[in-house]
C-alpha cells in the first residue's frame, strides 16, 4: 500500500478533564505518559497527543511542564512517535496564552481548536500570523474542527490568503464533551457532505464505546484515527480498557481486518508534508 494511503493511529491518553478517579491507568506525570507512549507505540500508534497537568492534576498550558513531558517521552521512544502538544483552552486560557505556549515549547506538532483561537473575525489576522510563525519554525499544526461549518470557515480563511499552508491537517471531533456522550459513525457524514471543503489529511476522534467503529469508518473513507482515554475508556465489546494501548490495539485490529495498513511516525510525517 502506498505510504499516503496508510492509516495513522494517534493516541490521546489523558486529555484535560479526566482524572485517576475515572480510570487508575490515566497518565498524569511525565513518567506515566512515557509508559503509555511506549505501550501505545508497541500497539500500533504513530503519534501521541499530549496534555500536561499541574500539581493538583488540573489542566495546564506551561512550557516547562511540556518540555519535561516531551523530553521524557523522546528519551523512551525516540522519533518513533510524532509528539503533538495540545493548546486547548478548557475555559481557562485566552488565545494569546494558547499561542504563546506553543511558540515557547516549539514542539514537533500542536493541535489548535479553530473556535478557540479564532472566536470571531477580530482574531483572524493574529491567527494567520501565528500560523506563519509555525510554518517558519517547522511546527506542524492540526486544526480541530467540531462542526462542518468550522471546516467551511477554515476553507474561507484559506481562500482569503490567511492560511500559510497549502493543506492544513485537521481533526474532526464527532460529538462533544458531555456526560454520557456517545459518538456514532454516522456523525462523520456531515463533515464529508457535498459542499464541505475537503481536507487532504484528516483524522477523527470520537466519544464513548463506538470510538473504534467511528475511527475505522474514517479510515475506510480515507481518514486517520485518534483514540484514547481523553475521549473513551471502553473497548468495542463494552469492557473497560486496561490502558490506552488496548484502544490502540483494538483500532489496529479493526483497521487491518478491513485490509488497510498502518502508518508509522515517519509515514505520518511524510503524509503531513505531502498533504
Automatic annotation (TrEMBL):
Cofactor needs: Zn(2+)
Keywords of the record: Metal-binding, Transferase, Zinc
Pfam families assigned to the protein according to its UniProt record, in alphabetical order: BKACE (PF05853)
Superkingdom of this protein's organism: Bacteria
Tagged with keyword NAD: no
Keyword Nucleotide-binding: no
Protein name, entry field: 3-keto-5-aminohexanoate cleavage protein
Amino acid at each position: 500500500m502506498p505510504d499516503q494511503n496508510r492509516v495513522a493511529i494517534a493516541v490521546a491518553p489523558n486529555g484535560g478533564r479526566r482524572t485517576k478517579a475515572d480510570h487508575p491507568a490515566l497518565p498524569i506525570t511525565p513518567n506515566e505518559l512515557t509508559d503509555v507512549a511506549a505501550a501505545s507505540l508497541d500497539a500500533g500508534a504513530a503519534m501521541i497527543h499530549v496534555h500536561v497537568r499541574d500539581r493538583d492534576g488540573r489542566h495546564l498550558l506551561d512550557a516547562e511542564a511540556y518540555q519535561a513531558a516531551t523530553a521524557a517521552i523522546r528519551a523512551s521512544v525516540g522519533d518513533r512517535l510524532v509528539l503533538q502538544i495540545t493548546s486547548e483552552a478548557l475555559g481557562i486560557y485566552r488565545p494569546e496564552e494558547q499561542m504563546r505556549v506553543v511558540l515557547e515549547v516549539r514542539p514537533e506538532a500542536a493541535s489548535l481548536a479553530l473556535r478557540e483561537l479564532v472566536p470571531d473575525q477580530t482574531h483572524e489576522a493574529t491567527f494567520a500570523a501565528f500560523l506563519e510563525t509555525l510554518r517558519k519554525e517547522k511546527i506542524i499544526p492540526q486544526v480541530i474542527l467540531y462542526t462542518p461549518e468550522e471546516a467551511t470557515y477554515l476553507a474561507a480563511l484559506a481562500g482569503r490568503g490567511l492560511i500559510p499552508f497549502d493543506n492544513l491537517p485537521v481533526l474532526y471531533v464527532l460529538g462533544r464533551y458531555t456526560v454520557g456522550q456517545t459518538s456514532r459513525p454516522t456523525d462523520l457524514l456531515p463533515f464529508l457532505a457535498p459542499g464541505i471543503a475537503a481536507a487532504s489529511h484528516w483524522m477523527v476522534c470520537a466519544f464513548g464505546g463506538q470510538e473504534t467503529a467511528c475511527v475505522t469508518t474514517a479510515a475506510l473513507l480515507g481518514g486517520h484515527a485518534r483514540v484514547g482515554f481523553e475521549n473513551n475508556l471502553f473497548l468495542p465489546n463494552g469492557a473497560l480498557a486496561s490502558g490506552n494501548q488496548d484502544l490502540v490495539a483494538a483500532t489496529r485490529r479493526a483497521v487491518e481486518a478491513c485490509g488497510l495498513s498502518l502508518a508509522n511516525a515517519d509515514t505520518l510525517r511524510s503524509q503531513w508534508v505531502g498533504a
